[in-house]
Amino acid sequence: MQIAIVVYPGLTALDAVGPYEVFNSAPGCEVRLVWKRAGPVVTDHGAFTLGATHTFAETPRPDVVVVPGSSANTGHAMKDATLREWLIAVHPHTRFTTSVCSGALVLGAAGLLQGQAATTHWAVMGSLAKFGAQARADERIVRSGRIVTAAGVSAGIDLGLALLADLAGTEDAKAVQLAIEYDPQPPFDSGHASKAAPATLALAGERLAARGRTPRAWD
Amino acid sequence: MQIAIVVYPGLTALDAVGPYEVFNSAPGCEVRLVWKRAGPVVTDHGAFTLGATHTFAETPRPDVVVVPGSSANTGHAMKDATLREWLIAVHPHTRFTTSVCSGALVLGAAGLLQGQAATTHWAVMGSLAKFGAQARADERIVRSGRIVTAAGVSAGIDLGLALLADLAGTEDAKAVQLAIEYDPQPPFDSGHASKAAPATLALAGERLAARGRTPRAWD
C-alpha cells in the first residue's frame, strides 16, 4: 500500500505529519513525501524543513494521495501545473484521494471536487463553492466516494485513522491509535468555529490573515 | 520567547511537530529545532527527514525545552553526553523543561526527574521509576514544577496548548487551538491503555517491540 503525501513549499507541517505518523505506524504502508524534486521543502512558518523522498515522476500509481494545506501558500500550490497534472493523472487509480485543511482547494483547482461534498479549514470554507463542491462546515471528515477531505491542520490525524480503518481494518487502526496514544484532551473547547467565542474567532482570523500577507521566499 | 525542540536521529516526527505547530502559530514565539549540528535529521520510521535549525551551542538560554520521544532510538538519546550536558546546563534557566512520549526517559537520564511526578508513553511507563520519578499513567500532561511531561506521540499537541496558555494566556491558546482546528474526533476509544481492548494492547505492543528490534543507521 503506497501512500503519497504531497509536500510543496509553504505547506503546514502538522497537516502532513498527522497522516504520516498514522500510516507509518501501520505495517504494510510505504509512505512517500512527494514533490517535483526529492530534497528539502520549507514549511509555512519558515523554521521547519522536511525532506521530499520521491518525485511525482517516480510515483505514478499511489494507492492513497494526501494533499496538505498551507497558511501561506495554498494559492501557489493550486496554480502549480505539475502538481495539478499529477493529481489528475493519479486520481483515477487511487483507493482514496484526500486532503487536509486548505489542501482541499488544491484538489478543487485540479477539478476533483466538482459535484462533491467536501470540507476544509474554516477560514477558507467559502472557497469550496468556486470548485463546484458542497461545503460541509460541520463535519471533520467528509467522504464523497474516493474523495475524502478533512478539516484544518490537526484533522489529518483523524483522517489517517479513518482511512486506515477502511484500508487495513478496524483492529489495525485501533492499534495505531493506541501506539500514538491518541486520547486527546484539548485544554479548551475552542477547536471548531461553531464552538469558539467571537473574540477567539476574530483573533485567530486576524492572525491567519496576517500570516497570509507576510512575504515568503516562494512569492 | 524561545522554544527549543530537541531533534535527535530516530525521534518520532509527530512528537516534535505537535508542539512545533502550536508554538509557531502563536505570535512572539521563536521555535528552534536543535541538535549538535544544523541540517537533516532522520526520524524513526526512516522516511521522514526534518531539519535541525540551530545547534546546542547556539541555544544556551531557551525559555522552553521540548524533548520528543522515539519508537526506535530513545536509548541512544539517553546516552548522548552532549544532549545530557545541554539539558543539565539549560534547565535551571527555563520556564519549562518538557517531554513528549519517551522523551521523558531522556530527561530522566539527565537526572531531571528525580523526585518528580511524570508521565511517558504507556509502553515505557515502567522505566520512569529507574530515574526516581513517580509515574502517573492516567494523566496525559503531568506538571511537576517546571518539569512538564506528556503521554505518547499525539499528546504533544495538548502539551503545547497547555504551556502556551501559561506563557501567553488562555485567549492566545484558544486562538491557536482554533487556528489548528483542534477539535479532535478519534474514530475509536482506543487511545489510552486503560481503554483499549486487550487484543489491541497486545497488537500495538508487539508492533512497537518489533520496531525497537529493527536495526537502524544509528545502531
Descriptive overview:
The structure is a homodimer of 219-residue chains. Chain A is of the alpha/beta class and 219 residues long. Chain A has one domain: 3-Layer(aba) Sandwich (Rossmann fold), CATH 3.40.50. Helix content of chain A is 34%, strand content 19%. Chain A is built from 7 helices and 11 strands. Chain A has helices spanning 13-24, 74-79, 81-90, 103-109, 155-168, 170-179, 198-213, and strands spanning 2-6, 30-35, 39-42, 49-52, 54-55, 64-67, 96-99, 117-118, 134-135, 141-144, 147-150. In chain A, the strands form 3 sheets. A 7-stranded mixed β-sheet of chain A has the order 5-2-1-6-7-11-10, with helices on both faces. The first copy, chain A, has a two-stranded antiparallel sheet with strand order 3-4. Chain A is globular and about 45 Å long. The model of chain A has no long low-confidence stretch (mean pLDDT 95). Chains A and B meet through helix 1, strand 2, strand 4, helix 5 and helix 6 of A and helix 1, strand 2, strand 4, helix 5 and helix 6 of B.
